[in-house]
Amino acid sequence: MQWTLRRLGRGLMLLAALGVALAIASHGAAEQTAPAGTVDPSAEAVALLRGAAETMASVTSFHFELTHERGATALTQGIEVEALEGDVQRPDRFRADVEASLQGLPLELRVVGIGSRLWLTDPLGGGDQYQELSVNPAIIAAINPDALLRAAVDAIRDPEIVDEETIDGEPTTVVEGLLDVGQVALAGLGTPAAEMETPAADDLPDPLLVQIWIDAEGRVVRLRLDGPLTDAEAANVVRRLDLSAFDEEVDIQPPGR
User: Fold this and answer.
1) Pairing of strands 61-70, 73-74
2) What is the full DSSP assignment across 25-43?
3) What CA–CA distance (Å, rounded) separates 121 from 176?
4) What residues contact 71, with CB distance under 8 A and at least 6 apart?
5) Which one is the CATH code of 42-244: 2.50.20.20, 3.20.20.80, 3.30.70.330, 3.40.50.1000?
6) Alpha carbon 11 to its chain's center
7) pTM for this one?
8) DSSP per position, 66-80
9) What is the spatial distance between Cα 168 and Cα 101, in angstroms, rounded to a whole number?
């Protein structure tokens, strides 16, 4: 009987020890596997941007409003662009009504961009008299909404999801990151993202802070760029691009046709 009790006692102690060991092992395994189930915010942002890039690549046209929360875009001959509203026709065309100023005097102009060519209505002649401008590609990119969009979505660095906001009654996810200025000019020239080359670090200006609003369908509906795209702009300039009316029929032709 005593032998049986001693044997039973050893068995209970063994079971208890085994239970403790299993509990410790289970806790350790949980600690080891927990990170695998945790979503990396950066990876989530990258996946969201990848989906948005694919969605926006299939868009054939969109309406846009490009405004400046601070500052303006220096265009040519002292003209500063404050706001543009118009349409983009893929792959390389846009047109817009322009609110601008010349030495403080308000101007209402129209602009047409096709590839690397840019036409602007005569600020002095008025009417529909266009003149073709010879300007730096970086300046064209600064007012070309498609170049801003492509560069931001394709070349953003260190993206993070920072917020969720409602725009026109629709939920959106806000992604924030950094954008090299040179990528905007390359996008304005039609350079594919895969072929964009980053200049040497010593030649780069400070990257811009960029925010991208992506809706439930994976479309970019708002973009905000904080910082100058050209040397002629103020250091605190802030652009905001709003997009709508995706894939509607648009026909943009060179002026005079």
Assistant:
1) unpaired
2) HHHHHHHHHHHHHSPPHHH
3) 36
4) 228, 233, 234, 236, 237, 238
5) 2.50.20.20
6) 66
7) 0.78
8) EEEEES-EE-STTEE
9) 30
Report which of 212, 153, 211, 228 is spatially closest to residue 187, judged by C-alpha positions: 153
Q: How far is it, in rounded angstroms, from Cα 189 to Cα 137?
A: 7
Least confident of 40-49, 85-94, 106-115, 164-173: 40-49
- 133 vs 165, more confident: 165
User: Omega before 35 cis (within 30°)?
Assistant: no
The closest alpha carbon to 98, from 54, 60, 62, 142, belongs to 142
What is the C-alpha separation between 61 and 66, in angstroms, rounded? 16
What is the rounded distance in angstroms from the CA atom of residue 30 to the CA atom of residue 189? 52
Q: What are the strands, taking DSSP E only, across 140-244?
A: 157-167, 170-179, 208-215, 220-226, 238-244
**Residues facing residue 257 across a β-bridge:** none
Q: Which candidate, 174, 180, 113, 104, places its Cα nearest to that of 141?
A: 113
CB 92 within 8 A of CB 114: yes
CA distances from 97 to 33, 140, 190, 213 (A): 56, 15, 23, 24
Question: pLDDT, tens digit, for every residue of 192-234?
Answer: 444 444 444 444 568 999 999 999 999 999 999 999 988 888 8
Task: Name the β-bridge partners of 56.
Answer: none
Encode pLDDT of 74-118 as tens digits.
888 789 999 999 999 999 999 999 999 998 899 999 999 999 899
